[in-house]
Design goal:
Blueprint lengths: L5 E7 L5 E6 L5 E6 L4 E5 L7 E7 L5 E6 L6 E5 L3 E5 L7 E5 L5 E6 L5 E6 L4 E5 L5 E5 L6 E6 L5 E6 L3 E6 L5 E6 L5 E6 L5 E6 L4 E5 L4 E6 L6 E6 L5 E6 L4 E5 L4 E6 L7 E6 L5 E6 L3 E6 L30 E4 L13 E3 L10 E3 L6 E7 L20 H45 L2
Length: 442
């Protein structure tokens, strides 16, 4: 029987809201950034009697994003002070800094080989740098407003960026050309994440929706409308079958992408906003951060979703809407605050007070942790049309909404048609191989 996701540990140390979270490739460290101008590296031990936390100070304004390098030997941080810093995640915390942009740097990401950095800024640009010596390589400049996020694809051939100009752009990292633009009519994107296969991109949107775009055919693949406030972050499970999101409505939500439905709602940060979320490299754990200044570590417990029949190259199915079957979705409530979904489904409650002291870490409780603070001042984040019952005619605004919805439906039918064509082609190929076997054996 499948277990529910469970809160394992929580960490306190930041003095303001968490902006970003990322695991090292080994899963033994978590790095978090915060509006308190600091980043912290939490060292996870199998023996949970003690947690070592490294606090790195040096930025002169909020830390907007943090990332481990692929080999885990460096941490990159992006800040509102217009700089990017590269840190060695150790007690000494040696670091180098460079002024990457002329305005707030909101996002930083390593290429798959760890050789390059992509940064996104309020100066409307995406820039690419070498990690060694932080040498500027090139700039991508077609956005017309703040760029909130830029990410490399798993093979680093494509960079995706999201902006307050309500567009998502795909860039060829070799030619430096924009190869496609997705247009968001009602919102901007807060976060983007590539599917592990590199075939699609998940967007966390300010209009409280999550959208999955297929970048092979440049079409909307899935659209979830389950949050009640803007979505701040998304993360794919390494299998590619599960997506988790963090929202200002205080919740984390877990989606089954193969069935196109919501399966869990988690309330660990309630009543504060959930601002960041990330799976580790194996997918058996994920971490979340919130405006409650805490980092929560969760056990995924979704092994039944990743059995032998799952193809690691599988991509999400087409799903026009994200209206889940509420009777099948579960609400996991950490703080015992009731939710609407808990009335229609099983509620699994956890209380932070019931977690053993050895499973928590706070920089204010010296008995549970070791904290090392390093200062670096001198060193190297389809609407539905419902006409009013008292009017026989659609308003002009409703007519626009209806037109947009119809356009989305037609686009989705196009995707289905292409999918059927691909399946037919595959069946034909299989049939041809079967027919050719006797001949090849002669």
């Amino acid at each position: 029987m499948m277990e529910d996701p469970a809160l394992e540990r929580f960490f306190r140390g930041h003095r303001d809201a968490i902006t970003s979270i990322h695991f090292s490739s080994t899963g033994k460290q978590i790095v978090s950034g915060s509006y308190d101008n600091n980043l912290m590296v939490w060292n996870l031990k199998e023996n949970q009697t003690q947690t070592r936390a490294f606090r790195y100070s040096g930025h002169e304004d909020a830390v907007m994003d943090v990332k481990f390098s692929p080999n885990g030997q460096l941490v990159a941080s992006a800040s509102r002070d217009k700089t990017v810093r590269l840190w060695v995640p150790s007690i000494k915390g040696e670091n180098s800094t460079f002024k990457a942009h002329t305005s707030t740097v909101r996002s930083v990401d390593f290429s798959a080989d760890g050789e390059y950095l992509a940064t996104a800024s309020d100066d409307k640009s995406v820039k690419v740098w070498t990690v060694h010596r932080q040498k500027f390589q090139y700039s991508l400049n077609q956005h017309t407003n703040w760029v909130r996020v830029a990410k490399f694809s798993p093979d680093s051939r494509v960079i995706v960026s999201g902006s307050d100009d309500k567009t998502i752009k795909l860039w060829d990292s070799t030619s430096k050309e924009c190869i496609h633009t997705f247009y968001e009519n009602a919102c901007h994107v807060n976060s983007l994440q590539f599917h592990p296969s590199g075939s699609c991109v998940a967007a966390a949107c300010s209009d409280s929706t999550i959208k999955l775009w297929d970048i092979r055919i440049n079409k909307l693949l899935q659209h979830y409308q389950t949050h009640n406030d803007e979505v701040n972050g998304v993360s794919f499970h390494p299998s590619g079958n599960i997506l988790i999101s963090a929202s200002s409505d205080t919740t984390l939500k877990i989606f089954d992408l193969l069935e196109g439905r919501l399966i869990y709602t988690l309330h660990g940060h309630q009543p504060k906003k959930a601002t960041a979320v990330a799976f580790n490299a194996t997918g058996d754990s994920f971490a979340s951060g919130g405006s409650d200044q805490q980092v929560l570590l969760w056990k995924t417990n979704l092994d039944n979703y990743f059995n032998s029949e799952n193809d690691e190259n599988a991509t999400p199915v087409h799903k026009s809407e994200g209206h889940e079957k509420s009777s099948r979705a579960k609400s996991v409530n950490v703080s015992h605050i009731p939710s609407d979904e808990s009335r229609a489904s099983k509620t699994v409650a956890f209380n932070k007070a019931s977690i053993p002291p050895s499973s928590s870490a706070s920089v204010n409780q010296s008995g549970d942790h070791e904290t090392y603070t390093h200062s670096a001042k001198s060193n190297i984040s389809a609407p539905q049309v419902k006409p009013s019952s008292g009017s026989a005619e659609l308003k002009e605004s409703d007519l626009h909404k209806f037109t947009d919805t119809l356009t989305q439906v037609l686009a989705q039918l196009d995707v289905l048609t292409q999918t059927v064509a691909i399946i037919e082609q595959r069946l034909t190929n299989v049939e041809n191989k079967v027919m050719s076997r006797p001949a090849s054996g002669r």
